[in-house]
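Please produce the structure of this protein holding uracil.
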Amino acid sequence: MNILDIIENKKNKKELSKEEIEYFVKKYTEGEITDYQAAALIMAICINGMTQDEILTLTVAMANSGDVLDLSDISKNIVDKHSTGGIGDKITLIVTPIVATLGVPVAKMSGRGLGITGGTVDKLESIPGYNTNLSIEEFKKNIKDIGISLIGQTVNLAPADKKIYALRDSISCTKSIPLIASSIMSKKIAAGANSIVLDVTCGSGAFMKNKEEATRLAKMMVLIGKWAKRKTVCVLTNMDEPLGYAVGNSLEIVEAVKALKGDMAKDVKSVVVKLATEMLNLAHKKSKPADNRKKVLKVIESGKAYEKFKELVEKQGGDVSYIEDTEKFEKAPIIAPVLCEKNGYVKSLDAEKVGKAGLELGIGRMKKEDSIDHRVGIVFEKKIGDKVKKGDILAYVHANSPEKANECVNSILSSYKIGSKKVTKKNILEVI
Ligand code: URA
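Below is the modeled complex.
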């Protein structure tokens, strides 16, 4: 078998055999297949798709490319959560401490930014000292000791996905149902949780632009979950507008800390409450969903999840003083306002345009090797439904150069549409 034949087959829309998929995953992980050969195959998959059997085989091969954790000695009720990606998506940082506070252990392996979407690992790394690179023993110990661990893909868990994920990011192959489903589910299977709640984002700032595509992705991941004997629920959420007020790594940590203290943007709160409730429903089969929802709301009000987040940061080596006083986060040298040009109501705020503008600022990577700037980003003052008048500040751009600030101010201004009537946004679209 050789990689050229495999590329040729996928290029010609042939179904790849189990052996071909396993060969590719193994040899690419081991470094015997080059990045450019893998890029050619990934591009062919992105264009020509995969059958259900191919997707299952790819998921299992990626999950088995490293260790597959068995956490049954810690609990039989470990839950995990993952998002298919979005702009301003800081939900993991808020929802996981809430669930852990309610006694459900969380074992979560997150990713870095992908395409225009942000990554939890990049966000966590803006906290000085926070180590996303734990050994499996440390990961397990933290779950045992404090009921939560949030790490990156740096331990030997699904290493094939780590390589393919970074490659996809740099060759514009992020939007693909087979590649997203196998990427997410291979990580979830390898990290050892029994139940999985997936936030399948849908809209301009998501990979899935409409509800039909998001539903197809959700159904595929539920199918993989069933096959892998993991209880899997998908919540379809709106990503037409950035989630919450901040977009950018340390800026989102600041917003998440505020949210954990109970001060949460409306859209963030509806997604947080829904996902946390679904996580409890899966872990506590006997309690009623309405009671679980009440428990989540109570924890948010109590501020206990904020204490759990601090415990997590401390346990993973982070400097907790930054969480206690978020003013300590280094600010970008330029903070420029975006001014409203007419009276009315915010009708839309295009998440995709915001994501692209954020990438230009340095929130994410254009190439695999690029470094990111944790300080930069956008903080919105006005969101869909808000009344605005000419001269109001719509947002602040945090930039590291005057040129980037100017460019971003113009992009953000063009992301807004102002209308004459107040509109509302539905945040939760469906549960699958
Ligand atoms: N998150 C992942 O882990 N993988 C994807 O492909 C998209 C979002």
